[in-house]
Known about the structure:
Blueprint: E1 2-6, H1 7-23, E2 36-39, H2 46-61, E3 67-72, H3 78-82, E4 84-88, E5 93-97, E6 110-115, H4 122-128, H5 130-134, E7 136-137, E8 140-141, E9 147-152, H6 166-169, E10 173-178, H7 181-190, H8 195-203, H9 225-238, H10 244-251, H11 253-266, H12 270-277, H13 287-303, H14 307-320, H15 325-344, H16 348-360
Parallel strand pairs: 1-10, 2-9, 2-10, 3-6, 6-9
Antiparallel strand pairs: 4-5, 7-8
Amino acid sequence: xxxxxTLAVWKRIIHRTILASVQKRLDANRLFRGPYxxxxxxxxxxxxxxFQAWRDANAELGADTIDLVYFxxxxxxxxxxxxxxxxxxxxKKVVQVPNDRWRLDSGRPAIYAGDEFNRTSQxxxxxxxxxPTERTIGGKPIHEASIVCLMGNPEAPxxxxxxxxxxxDTRFSWLDVQYDHKGWKAYMIMRQAHPWVxxxxxxxxxxICPKIEDRDSGQHGRPCPRSWxxxxxxxxxxxxxxxxxVVEGLLGAGLAKEFYAFGMxxxxxxTLVDDILKGDNKTADALDAxxxxxACLVDRFRQAQEVPVARRILDYARVSADKAAEAxxxxxxxxxxxxxxxxxxxxxxxxxxxxxxxxxxxF
Length: 363
């Protein structure tokens, strides 16, 4: 009863659902607007995809066309959802007062994005199920174009979740979001990730979103994709050396030590990056350092998204592929992730070179 999707596919689904619901291009009997229940590993980007789709939709439809109401179900009591009952002296009776966070009186549709649905108490879950089943909150209807999306973690060892029953299952379109390394890297490039993180991700992809049974709560911590995003932020905020204890807190001391050994070694190649952009085709003397060099080249292209810069880096990728084919293939793919239009606008010879690299090397 579950559809298996990558993060990129999930983002497209929720984005198209928003546009279809708000623009009303289809008759109500033909329109699908959920509700969705999205399951995936912690920190994989389930909620971030909704945030991005919401921002993109408002950019297309006009600012503040649709609201976003994000909440953690596990932090709610039933009264937080349905509201509370108070005595109204004017009406001389007890009335129900809804929670303002639901924005029921805004006059705008909303995306109701509820996280940790399968970690809520049974009482809270029953109250929350009014939203996707009746499209009401505390008996008050939500906007007709609103979308309901609940999220949770897998029913697997290591996750403290309650199994859903058959009746709950049939109320949702279940989507199982799988980690997509290529999509995650594209997201991190957009967020201007630190070259250390991007270089490490190219060399040690298995450490970005390890299976929960492969994670160690001790020396190697329990990193997830969200952890590496925060590592990047820490490196930019504090600088590499001062960020070390923060990174250890995010990754665990053991993995942080390996990560810093990679980063400190790779820093010796900063001048090589400048030389490459000036026309030198030298490569690093170790594969991990080459991944770092290539990550720096991608970052330089992100800062100056121009055809001459793309052409120089593509030339280098083609030449360096003889010594480090894997690193070169990742370099080309990441360049396209930054701005594929600029990359592909190179002259036919370079376009052919890019095509050959992308066809014959494994990303």
